[in-house]
Amino acid sequence: MRSAGEARATGRAVRVVTGYFDPLLPEHARRLAELGQPGGLLIVIVVVTDPPQPILPARARAELVAALRVVDGVLTARPAEVEDLLGQIRADAVAREEPEDLRRARDFATHVRARQGG
Question: pTM of the predicted model, to two decimals?
Answer without folding.
Answer: 0.89
